[in-house]
Amino acid sequence: MTDRHGPARAFGTALTGRTAVWKSIEAFARAWARPLTPADGIPPGEVRKAEQRLGLRLPAALYETYALFGRRQDLTAVQNPLLLPDELLLDPSGELLVFRSENQGCAGWGIPLEKLAHDDPPVSLFSDCLPDASWLPYLDRVSSACAELVLSETVMARRYGPYGRECPATAVVVAAVEAMCAPVDLPPCPAWYHPEGDPVRWYSAPGKLLCLEPDPDESVPDGSVLVVVGRSEADVREVVAAVPGDWPAAEPVPRAEEPFPGW
Question: Is residue 238 part of a domain?
């Protein structure tokens, strides 16, 4: 399937409710990977077992996440994975139900226990980069956090190969991105590795997904980095040609213009 409108269009109605988020994720999977199928979901019975183990009732949005794409590792488990139901746990403070973890356990995304009764509750972030095992608000809904998960895991799958490039996000770079791309309709959110820095922001154009993210390295101009990934190397080259950034050399392509390896 071609990506005629880009992720910004796919997620353009995401803030209207979680049903729209799930439809957006289905559209994104069709365009950037492969269509979702019933086999990609986790049966509700496995989620209920997790509830019995934890002694907690999980929100509807988490049930729906697992049912729709809980087994799709290309969308959920490239770097900082969605936890399977039998992996759900509490954060160090004992105040959050953690459903996504940084790959080495340095941070996690969770639902405040006092909000579990909501169908689509807010999500908080805890991180070793915050003092005293504290946590802070991440996004206002589980469904929005799952949409951001899909985008960030897609970027992590591609950013360090021929389908991805990055450069310092100077003011000139940001202006060029805003001129050529549409913002993805998700609220800005903190980065786990620099939670008190500038928030993560998403942009897209057909065949292209771009992320403005903070960089804790004080030597980076303006303290942010632009990451761009594409459905093909040509998509990435278009951004590099249009955005006047300090781009490093591209990594070699293993095979000419194939679909992304493994997808």
Answer: yes
Give residue 213's domain range: 161-242
Share of the chain above pLDDT 90, in %: 78
CA angle 116, 121, 122 (to 5 degrees): 120
Q: What is the pLDDT of residues 193-202, one digit of tens each?
A: 999 889 999 9
For residue 181, what are its two tokens? 């791309």
Half-sphere exposure of 94 (CA within 13 A, CB side): 0
Residue 76 within a domain: no
Nearest to 184 by CA among 5, 2, 3: 5
The total number of structural domains that make up the chain: 1
For residues 177 and 211, is the Cβ–Cβ distance under 8 A? no
Is 182 a domain residue? yes
Residue 165 lies in a domain: yes
Cβ atoms of residues 154 and 201 within 8 Å: no
